[in-house]
């Protein structure tokens, strides 16, 4: 019986280039971490958090779109089947990660109009750092996938 299996391959060179070139994303992520580590004491801090989180959301939208367009592709003849599941799983994480940062940025936006914004923002910080942990794990796993794809290309381990 014939089975049809969709395979997802990784374009390691493009994926690596997207990651290395994304200076703006790294900068805004660093800025958000610095801001959200500090306690929010006044309403102007909330505005700064909100603007930075919106910027991070926009950078991530671009980052995931580039990775989806150039870093992953469907391949009828998968050259490295053992990488297929890892690629599929990491590729699918993009939408969940993006929805998470959208929710966090939206929550920050709503807090701007909240009477007790400064008190409420602690929850936002917790959600943000939980997101950062997931995103950084995702990035590390993609780095490992890129290395594995390169190793397959040059025949390491055969
Ligand atoms: Fe990714």
What does this structure look like?
The chain is mostly helical and 158 residues long. It has one domain. It has 5 helices and 2 strands, in the order βαααβαα. It has a two-stranded antiparallel sheet. Helix 3 packs antiparallel against helix 4 and helix 4 packs antiparallel against helix 5. The model has no long low-confidence stretch (mean pLDDT 86). The site of fe (ii) ion (FE2) has 5 residues, from helix 4 and helix 5.
Give the DSSP E fraction (strand runs of 2 or more residues).
under 5%
**Small molecules bound in the structure, each named once:** fe (ii) ion
Report low-confidence residues grouped into runs of 5 or more: none
Strand order of the largest sheet: 1-2
Average predicted local confidence, pLDDT: 86
Biggest sheet layout: 2 strands, antiparallel
**How many angstroms separate the termini?**
31 Å
Structural class: mainly alpha
- The dominant shape is elongated
- Overall tally of domains: 1
Estimate percent helicity.
over 70%
Q: In total, how many beta strands?
A: 2
Order of helices and strands: EHHHEHH
The number of distinct helices, counting runs of at least 4 residues, comes to: 5
Rg over CA atoms, rounded to whole Å, is 19 Å
């Amino acid at each position: 019986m014939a089975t049809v299996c969709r395979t997802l391959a990784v374009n390691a060179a493009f994926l690596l280039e997207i990651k290395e070139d994304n200076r703006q994303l790294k900068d805004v992520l660093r800025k958000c971490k610095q801001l959200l580590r500090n306690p929010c004491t006044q309403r102007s801090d909330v505005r700064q958090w909100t603007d930075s989180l919106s910027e991070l959301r926009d950078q991530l939208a671009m980052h995931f779109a580039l990775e989806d367009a150039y870093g992953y592709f469907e391949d009828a003849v998968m050259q490295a089947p053992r990488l297929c599941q890892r690629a599929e799983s990491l590729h699918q994480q993009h939408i969940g990660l993006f929805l998470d940062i959208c929710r966090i940025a939206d929550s920050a936006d709503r807090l701007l109009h909240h009477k007790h914004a400064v008190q409420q923002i602690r929850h936002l910080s917790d959600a943000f750092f939980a997101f950062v942990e997931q995103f950084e794990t995702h990035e590390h796993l993609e780095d490992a996938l890129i290395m594995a794809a390169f190793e397959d290309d040059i025949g390491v381990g055969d």
